[in-house]
Amino acid sequence: MAWSSAHAKLHILLRSQILLPKNSRILMAVSGGQDSLCMGRLLIELADKWQWQLAVVHCDHGWRGDSADNAAHVLTLAKAWQVPAWLEVAQSPPASEAAARKWRYESFAKVARQQGYNYVVTGHTQSDRAETVLYNLIRGTGTDGIGTLPWVRSLDTTSSPITLVRPLLSFSRAETIALCQQQQIPIWEDSTNQDLHFRRNRIRHELLPYLRSHFNPQVESALAQIADIATEESAYLSQQAKDIYRQCIFQVDSKSWEIQRAVLKQSHLAIQRRVIRQLLQSAIAQPPNFLHIEKLVALLTAPNGSQSDPYPGRWIAQVRGSIIRFTQKAS
After folding, report:
1. In 197-287, alpha helices (H)
2. pLDDT tens, 219-237?
3. CATH no. for residue 122?
4. pLDDT of the residue at 215
5. Which of 160-169, 188-197, 236-245 has the lowest mean pLDDT?
6. Domain-located, residue 110
7. What is the pLDDT of residues 97-150, one digit of tens each?
8. Total structural domains in the chain?
9. Is residue 246 domain-resident?
10. Which of 134, 172, 216, 263 has the fewest CB within 10 Å, making it most exposed?
11. Are 152 and 223 contained in the same domain?
């Protein structure tokens, strides 16, 4: 192994944060692009130091005419790396990026569970994180959307939990391509990465270069720092909101909830919004938006008898003395 600055950077990071403990069984999600190949090569060359057992999983969405060749390329590399590999092929091409992402992570969890791996790693980089922060900000996100792509999250909460880890979040895309070039790792070029019909590609190829040139040469690092801060603050606020939720939100039956106004009114507006969002996520048929949440927050201080206009699924909120009754009306 030719020890490089990238090897040292990742090794030091793993020692300081203990993202992937010694003796872990790790399933590496490899697409064939520069980021996942860089990750795979680094982990394989650090494996002896950490006593890891490594394997590869590749997901073929069936979106491109060359997807089967892409999969074969990854399996060939896994064989050269002398690690087991599994291929997951979509029965039909996913209808959207969101559907593809959902299927992909479900596939990772399934293979990890079946083959006994307790960690799944992906090659997301600092550049991916910056793009996702911008994408979510443009769509109008809250703090949770800014604190996106965390280093670690649960992928499967069964009796044998599986943890998703993103070990390259301190690496830029420039660093991953540099390592692939230095070590002559053959990259599979995904033509869809250049397609500007995908909004993320437009952010990558047009918006971020503009911001880099005209505002901040280190914009990716700055956005990643914001994501780190937001992640920790969101975790704290979420825990506070859960504690308040247990004190003031009660489900009466499948079509009725009650909110104790006095308890929730004492909380900060940020906590009120999170508690109300949690209630709406449990009740209504679609993800709540900002206006949905604000309508219920306004009823915390509204006169008796006040009520909201209908929510999706015919839900209505009405002030009844010290409580707000949130009920689903019959069709």
Report:
1. 199-202, 208-214, 219-248, 261-265, 269-283
2. 999 999 999 999 889 989 9
3. 3.40.50.620
4. 96
5. 188-197
6. yes
7. 888 899 999 999 999 999 999 999 999 999 999 999 999 998 888 888 888 788
8. 2
9. no
10. 216
11. yes
